[in-house]
Amino acid sequence: MSRRSQTEIAVLGGLSVEPMTGYALRQAITETLGHFWHESFGQIYPTLAALEASGLVRRTSAGQTSGSQFEITADGLARLRERLTEPIESAPPRNGLLLRLFFGRLLGADVCRNLIEAVQERAHLDLETFAQLRSEVSADPDPHSDYWLITIAAGEHGARAQLEWAHEALEILARQRN
Amino acid sequence: MSRRSQTEIAVLGGLSVEPMTGYALRQAITETLGHFWHESFGQIYPTLAALEASGLVRRTSAGQTSGSQFEITADGLARLRERLTEPIESAPPRNGLLLRLFFGRLLGADVCRNLIEAVQERAHLDLETFAQLRSEVSADPDPHSDYWLITIAAGEHGARAQLEWAHEALEILARQRN
DNA sequence: TATGTCATGTAACTGGTTACATGATTGC
DNA sequence: GCAATCATGTAACCAGTTACATGACATA
Q: Is A33 touching B (CB cutoff 8 A)?
């Protein structure tokens, strides 16, 4: 049960779309995978160095003012394909919001209501972001677009579900007082 | 940014409902918080020991054949209330499924379709579990019930969203071939 | 007496975060 | 000349997992 770092997949994946600096990689991940993935510099740079050492990634200082671009090698692409087929190991669930609500009686209904309303706001903002993303991807179709739309759809359905849930939850709390 | 262990909240929370052994605590967490929380023995026992050392939890060998029950003390309850109001620090998102689908073009449409169908099956099973849970909680109302129903509702809305998303995603992939 | 469940723990590991340090480049 | 952004890295820390070890009790 090796539990190999998933960061490798994200890094190779990012570079498979387009060569980039480590910094740009981080940006790209936050901007376009942000709603389902996260990487910190503390992971990206060491991973990049390790990938370079094993020839899965190549450093090309081409046309750069500062920093170095990384591009994926043929070996790197093969490794990426291989790792993508690995069974998905999802992080064990740890939803701090639901943990608090489960013990909501100790927290009090008012605090719970606030927590839920915060989710509503967040979900509304998220829906705007997704609409934006969706239009960007649709405007510039490429072989990846369908898959990107699928991940965006996941975000949208999730956000809508949160709105519906929040509504139901607030109703349960409202009924309580009467 | 202390990043204190969330395990403490789960353990104190569990014991606030009912005194239990460490083993039973783990069971209770998997069974009733399972869809949004997880704890391993490797976390539970050390946490229990630390809580006992600071007087937030008490060991009572009452009426036990083997092992010792733990019960929460007044200090423990105070600490729990305090920790419940802490800002929620959610784990950074790392959804292995969506990461794979984002690079779905490299994986191939067939593999992606399989991944999505697995989600559908999972979601159907989850909905059954939630229905079961819901009827158990409704059958035996207590001051916690409303809050427990809220967390169950979150699971239900999430699962339904996954079904809708899966449907949309499969449609996108189907359109592709034509 | 063997098997399964209840029960408690520890040791090693590691993925990932945070915080810090440093410097180049760009634009004002 | 200054501030903001681009860019690269490292070191310390830690939460949490995995694997291992051990033993009591019930029951078939």
A: yes
